[in-house]
Every structure is written in C-alpha cells, then in structure tokens.
Amino acid sequence: EFRRGESELVIIVTPYLVKPVDAKDIVLPTDGYRSANELQQLLGYQNNAGVSGEQRPGPTSAQPDAPQPQVSDADPAAIIPNAPAKPRRADKKNRKDEREANAVAPGFSL
C-alpha cells in the first residue's frame, strides 16, 4: 500500500520504558525514496525511483572554513568609470553666487 501512496500515520504509545537506539538502526518506509527523473515520469509513468531497503543518506561533513572577510581598497572610480566627479567646495560657492545674480524680481520685464 505504501508504494501506491495509500499509507496512514500510525502512532504507538506504550507505558513501558524502551531501550535507546541509534538513529541509523531505525528503518523507515521512506528510506529508499528518490524522486523519479523527467524521463521516468514521462515514459515510465513513475512517481519515484527508490530502491526498497536502501539506507537513507546520513549527515555530511561541513565544507572547510571560508576565508575571513577583508576590507577592500578598491578605487570607487574604477568600479563606476563614467560617474561624474563630485564638485569641489569652491565650485559650489561660485554656483551659489550665480543663482543669486539671476534671481527673479517681482513684476514684468519688457
């Protein structure tokens, strides 16, 4: 029934103390389950490609430590080559004077 997808959840409660076991010693019906690839699904009408009694994958070791982060000394102009340069403070003052000289006066000019 499990292979046809007709399984039910069964919970067993006992008042007795049980002996502890290793996780690798516990066998589940889903241990050999593997999804079918596209070819098996389309041509073979299969939902899974598992092997009955296969051992489930165990824990894997972590990858080696990543290098520590470092501060980059990259030039911002190298990152964005066509970025406009920031105007100097002296240039900002000159622009302010130009704006004041071209200020709008009340009334009409003909």
Layout of helices and strands:
Blueprint: H1 38-44, H2 76-79, H3 89-101
β-strand number: 0
pLDDT under 50 segments (min length 5)?
none
Rg measurement, Å: 37 Å
Count of DSSP-assigned helices: 3
Distance between the termini: 97 Å
Q: In percent, how helical is the residue content? A: 10-25%
Structural class: mainly alpha
Most strands sheet: none
Oligomerization category of the chains in this entry: single chain
Order of helices and strands: HHH
β content, as a range?
under 5%
Q: Any idea what the shape is?
A: elongated
Polypeptide structure, described:
There is one protein chain. The chain has 3 helices and no strands. With 110 residues, the protein is an all-alpha fold. It is elongated. The relative contact order is 0.08. The chain has a domain at 1-55. The protein has helices at 38-44, 76-79, 89-101. The mean pLDDT is 71.
A few lines on this structure:
This protein is an all-alpha fold and 110 residues long.
List keywords for this structure.
110 residues; single chain; 3 helices; 22% helix; elongated; mainly alpha
